[in-house]
Amino acid sequence: xxxxxxxxxxxxxxxxxxxxxxxxxxxxxxxxxxxxxxxxxxxxxxxxxxxxxxxxxxxxxxxxxxxxxxxxxxxxxxxxxxxxxxxxxxxxxxxxxxxxxxxxxxxxxxxxxxxxxxxxxxxxxxxxxxxxxxxxxxxxxxxxxxxxxxxxxxxxxxxxxxxxxxxxxxxxxxxxxxxxxxxxxxxxxxxxxxxxxxxxxxxxxxxxxxxxxxxxxxxxxxxxxxxxxxxxxxxxxxxxxxxxxxxxxxxxxxxxxxxxxxxxxxxxxxxxxxxxxxxxxxxxxxxxxxxxxxxxxxxxxxxxxxxxxxxxxxxxxxxxxxxxxxxxxxxxxxxxxxxxxxxxxxxxxxxxxxxxxxxxxxxxxxxxxxxxxxxxxxxxxxxxxxxxxxxxxxxxxxxxxxxxxxxxxxxxxxxxxxxxxxxxxxxxxxxxxxxxxxxxxxxxxxxxxxxxxxxxxxxxxxxxxxxxxxxxxxxxxxxxxxxxxxxxxxxxxxx
Length: 495
Fold this sequence. Notes:
Layout: H1 2-12, H2 25-31, H3 39-44, H4 54-62, H5 80-90, H6 102-112, E1 115-117, E2 120-122, H7 126-129, H8 133-143, H9 170-184, H10 190-197, H11 206-213, H12 221-242, H13 252-261, H14 275-291, H15 306-313, H16 331-350, H17 361-377, H18 379-387, H19 393-401, H20 410-422, H21 426-441, H22 443-448, H23 452-460, H24 469-486, H25 491-494
Antiparallel strand pairs: 1-2
Helix pairs in contact: 10-20, 12-16, 13-14, 14-16, 15-16, 15-20, 17-18, 17-19, 17-21, 20-21, 20-24, 21-24
């Protein structure tokens, strides 16, 4: 009965976050002639990545799994990933779209003309994208900006240096040595490990450190191999026991939704479009869902697997992770990566499970807390939202549901999670201050927007594609300052 109520709530309640109001095509076209002045008007003219028609569901399940390299972006997905896709398809080392060098700009202009292939005239795809003066004006403005080399989405997670880059600095080597010393001791001092992990974990040490910080591995070094072996076998026992039931009447809706969401998970990174990887994610999410009936599977949980999977994969891969063929690894290695990803994701979700229970009360409360916090730290932004009728739930729901994963490149998420796992209640409490700092980061851009639709589009497509360790470090420093100032002030300030 509870399951039926939950299903009817999400399908019938038009006010549920993430659901857009369907309307006729004529009404949508009429809305395009004027700016949307309220969220309801904006929602009617905008598709949302969380919703999909029943007919589309059926077509998806009957269609074959998209092949590797398919780049169909879901509506509402952060537009920064489209820019990354264009760069990675044409040249992995090319500058980002809109910031090409003059030589490349001339080549693009030539490509806009019709070309002849085998005696036939072929129309350039660029005509479809550059057919309005508004787009051309935007590109011209971007071309005036300094050229900055594109950073891969996943590769060089630790330091973002290109291959053949200078060796580590003295400070980096000292940090690496400290981590090695901590992890090789008979009993790792977890408090000391958290302190050093807060400002980022060296790539070589990240897999073991994440297992320890998440509580998956014990601090005692001698027990680690035994615990790993036991937990991995336990996970595969779950698969043997439960995975065949994915076609049962009771679980088929859960599996169906997971099957739909998997191709949407980082669709522009080739790694996650591989059939072997998608099968891993389906098993992980299905097993977790049936072992947590209070919440079951909720859209957004699929994103939370990816950082763990990439980090544990990097333990066995020296080349470019985002293009690595996982099927080339030995079967036992694949099994171990899958099991470790499952258990660490489970540990994370244990601390924020109220985000995914019926009606997602944890997210509702966190969004309210964010609104109250912003009203205290930046009254101008808060009043700006009120003036143009922008509600925090309209943009911050996704920030809480996906832990900012759809707002940041994956490499930045991994760096962010170094700190969140080092912080006490990092995902359940500290994340609130990260979101507040993230919002204030775009203060100038927010205050410059003077209409509802422009504000919401900005907040849903913040330009973070070029962010790296430096930007994330500054964001986390500001989040810590906000936490210290507004939540964790010394006791003599609280009297």
